[in-house]
Here is the input.
Amino acid sequence: MKDNLFAKQGVKVNELFKNERVLYPEFIPERLPFRDVQIDELVFAFKPLTEGRKARNVFVFGNTGTGKTATVKYVLKELQEYSDRPKALVLNCFEKNSRHSVLVELANFLGNAVPERGLSTAEVHAEVLQSLKNCGFLPIVVLDEFDQLLNNGGEDLLYDLLRAPEQGLKTIPVILISNNQDLLAMLDARVKSSLQAVSLKFDQYSPVQLKEILKQRAEFAFREGTLEKEVINVASAHASKLGGDARIAIESLLNAGRIAERENSAKVSLAHLKKAFETIELSTGRKKLSTLSEDEKSLLKIISKNPGGIDSGELFLQFSKTGSKVSDRRFREIVSLLEKNKVISAQQATKGKGKTRIFRLGVKKESLKL
Ligand SMILES: Nc1ncnc2c1ncn2[C@@H]1O[C@H](COP(=O)(O)OP(=O)(O)OP(=O)(O)O)[C@@H](O)[C@H]1O
Ligand SMILES: [Mg+2]
Here is the structure.
C-alpha cells in the first residue's frame, strides 16, 4: 500500500520545538518584561472593581508590536482570575468596525442574543441597556484599534457606554487601544470629559529589550541548544530596525524554526533566519503588492498623486469617479486593510467642525507598479 502523504513528512517533525505555540501571535506569555509600569497602571485602574468601586477608563497608545494588546489581555486575565465579578469583552475594531456591530457584540456578551442584522442600532442599544439591568457580572469593554471606529460611530458608541450610569445602570469601564497618540485629543469634548481616561504610553522596544523578550520566549518554544548563537541577536536587531516591533521579532523566530525543521536541520541557523525575514517582509504588515485588487490599485493611484496627503472625503469622491461601484462600507474596508498592511498610512485631522483622516502612501511609489 502507498504511504500516506502526511506520514511521510511527519518523521522528523517537532525535534526543534518544545512548544511552538509560545511563538504564535495570539499567545499571551506569563511574563511581559519591560511592561511593569504599564501593568501597574492597569492594575491600579481596575483594582477598584474588585472592591465594589468604579474603575478608571484607560487610553493605551504606542507603535505597532509594543505589547499593547498582549499587556491589556494579560492584566484582564489576571483580574478575572482574581475576582469572578469582572468580565472583559475584547473587540478588535478592524473586525467590529461600526457602533452597530460593537453594540451587537456587547448585547450578546451581556447574555442577550441579538442578531447582527435585522435590528436598528437604536434597538440594539436599547437591548444593551436592558441586558445591563439583568447582568450578574461587571462588564469591561476593550476596543482595540479604536481608530477604525472613530469615523464610524465611535464617539456615539463611547457616549452610549459612558452614559449608562445616568440611567441608573452599571458603569462600563472602557480601554481604548490605538497606534495614534492624538486619538484622545480628536474626541468630541463631551465624550472626552465623560471618559476622563488615564493615558498609558507603550514605548518602542530598544534592541537590548527585544533581545531579552526573544530570549525568554525562545526558552519556552525551542529545545535546549537548538538555536545557533547569533540567531536571537540578529532577529532582535532586524526587528529593531523595523520599528522595535516585538511581533516581527517573534514571528521571524517561529518561521526560522519551521524552515529549519523542514530542512531536517538539527539547529536553527542564521541562514534559516534570513529566509524567515523574507517571508515576513511579504506577510506581516506588508501586503504582497503584486496581489492588489483593481479597486485597491485605483485607490492607491489617487493617493500616490497626492504626496501631501488626501483626506478621506476627497479620496472617496475621487474614487467614486473612477467608476468603482463600491459602497461606503466597502470603501472603508479597503482602506482599513491597506492601512493594516501598511501600504498606506493615516493621520487624524480636523476639517471644519468635524474630523477626518489624511491618507498617504506607506510604501515607495515605485514599488506599487500601478
Ligand atoms: N514585553 C513583552 N514580552 C514578551 N512578549 C511581548 C512583549 N511585548 C510584546 N510581546 C509580543 O509581541 C507580539 C506583539 O505584541 P502586541 O500584539 O501586544 O502588540 P501591539 O502593541 O498590540 O501591536 P499593534 O499596534 O500592531 O496591535 C505579541 O506576540 C506579544 O506577545
Ligand atoms: Mg494590538
In short: Residues 62 and 202 are 5 Å apart (CA to CA). DSSP finds 15 helices and eight strands in the chain.
